[in-house]
Amino acid sequence: MRPIQMVDTKNQYLKIKTEVDAAIHEVLDSAAYINGKAVQDFTLALNNYQGSKHTIPCANGTDALQIAMMALGLQPGDEVITPSFTYIATTEVVALLKLKPVFVEVDPVTFCIDPAAVRKAITSKTKAVVPVHLYGHAAPMEEIMQIAEEFGLYVIEDNAQAIGCDYTFSNGTRKKTGSIGHIGCTSFYPSKNLGAFGDGGAIFTNDDVLADKMKMIANHGQSKRYYHDLVGCNSRLDSIQAAVLNVKLKQLDQYIAARQKAAAFYNNAFANFPQITTPAIASYSTHVFHQYTLVLNGVNRDGLNAYLAEKKIPSMIYYPVPGHKQQMFAAFALEAYHLTVTDWLTERVISLPMHTELDEEQLQFITSETLNYIHSV
């Protein structure tokens, strides 16, 4: 059996090595390392895949969130509602721009932001909501957009973990996550479903004015060279990363299908064990399984984590410390937060290996050893 990886980017690369290497050498031959043809080609291809009117590539997913919030003109002290149960980048950017993060609960089944909690958290200072499509499952965007329209709020989708996920509205309309809110943001970190060979990110919008503004912000606030109309930043997707991503984008739907097949194997293996709750999929969403995350019931999560490590099976805990308990946000009266669902999840979730290269022998070993631990305690 091949060694089991949490994310196997090497074997994924080997399957497309010829095409990737050729694309990289094309960039090297052109010497257009910044804003070259590869970036233009990838931007167009991604825009077509995503179904957004505008796609703006940038240096990473965190920059994408920052540029989005800068473009919306949010001012220090403005409140931004976000789930506490997410990676720190989602809320880190809020504080970086001197905005106020307002942490709310997630749904215990989908792990995504709870619309009822969003509605309850809105004040006169609330300006935006950042739903996170966590682990590859869509947040309930139809309800979020209705609330945003009712209260005049912006919606910034954090789509870093769910590119390729489809959302179905109550009228049957389907859209890709990241193309529903006022702005969508994603990451191309190597472990992502669409991963580069380094950092990268992108921003999506259907708003012409916002698109122009975000393009300027990402390029030092320039309207044209050496004319800086806005305070901006330097956030570019380089040509080599774009070339790699353009090859991998053609494989994305196949990558998603491979992840869904692995998830189905896991689901079937764990189906009859009440100690394990497998990932749910809401009727409005597909699941692209950036992570395969279990909720354990009456099982020592840290004990399972250690046991699997002994068996050379990697596992991860996403996320052991939620945002409302992070020291970096101490200035925001963290003691006022009582997020019982979030706290409950942080004590019980564990993620098993999930990537495109898992084979049946590996999956059988992972599930068997997980159940061996369950049976032994």
Brief rundown of the structure:
The chain is 39% helix and 15% strand. It is built from 13 helices and 14 strands. The two termini are 27 Å apart.
CATH superfamily of the largest domain: Type I PLP-dependent aspartate aminotransferase-like (Major domain)
Task: Give helix % range.
Answer: 25-40%
Molecular shape: globular
CATH topology of the largest domain: Aspartate Aminotransferase, domain 2
Task: Determine and state the CATH class of the largest domain.
Answer: Alpha Beta
Instruction: Give average pLDDT, whole number.
Output: 97
Strand order of the largest sheet: 1-9-8-5-4-2-3
CATH architecture heading of the largest domain: 3-Layer(aba) Sandwich
Given helix and strand content, the structural type is alpha/beta
Q: Care to count the β-strands? A: 14
- Main pleated-sheet profile: 7 strands, mixed
Radius of gyration, rounded? 21 Å
Which regions contain 5 or more consecutive residues with pLDDT less than 50? none
- Please tally the helical runs, counting DSSP H or I stretches of 4 or more residues: 13
CA distance, first residue to last residue: 27 Å
Order of helices and strands: HHHEHEHEHEHEEEEEHEEHHEEHHEH
Strand fraction: 5-15%
Domain count, please report it.
2
Descriptive overview:
The structure is a single chain. With 377 residues, the protein is of the alpha/beta class. The chain has two domains: 9-249, Aspartate Aminotransferase, domain 2, CATH 3.40.640.10; 252-376, Aspartate Aminotransferase, domain 1 (Alpha-Beta Complex), CATH 3.90.1150. Helices cover 39% and strands 15% of the residues. The protein contains 13 helices and 14 strands. The strands form four sheets. Strands 1-9-8-5-4-2-3 form a seven-stranded mixed beta sheet, sandwiched between helices. Helix 7 (141-151) links the parallel strand 4 and strand 5. Helix 4 (61-71) crosses helix 5. The protein starts with 8 loop residues before the first helix and ends with a helix.
